User: Which sequence fits this backbone?
């Protein structure tokens, strides 16, 4: 093989492997589902990220909001695959509200 063909193949493989990162993992799909259900029940929270291993990181406005979301996510975890413990963080100052129910993808 000539070097330009090898280079093209390496480039193609890099692009294809990068595309696989754009697809949610099964753990992320489970996490998104749990977040969606719990977010309809618990206000004052905003999704920050869903990692590839399914760990949910979210912001909360008041201590009760954060604890309520953690309790809901833990209850949802009893009926399905185990995921890493969610991480609750006090909403950074100046950050807007929201709710983070956007759709798939990791952050």
Assistant:
């Amino acid at each position: 093989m000539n070097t330009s063909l090898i280079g093209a193949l390496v480039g193609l493989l890099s692009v294809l492997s990068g595309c696989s990162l754009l697809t949610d993992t099964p753990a992320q799909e489970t996490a998104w589902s749990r977040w969606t259900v719990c977010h309809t029940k618990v206000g004052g929270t905003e999704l920050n990220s869903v990692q590839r291993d399914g760990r949910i990181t979210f912001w909360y406005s008041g201590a009760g909001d954060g604890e309520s979301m953690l309790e809901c996510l833990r209850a949802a975890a009893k009926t399905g695959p185990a995921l890493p413990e969610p991480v609750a963080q006090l909403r950074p100052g100046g950050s807007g509200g929201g709710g983070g129910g956007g759709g798939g993808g990791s952050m």
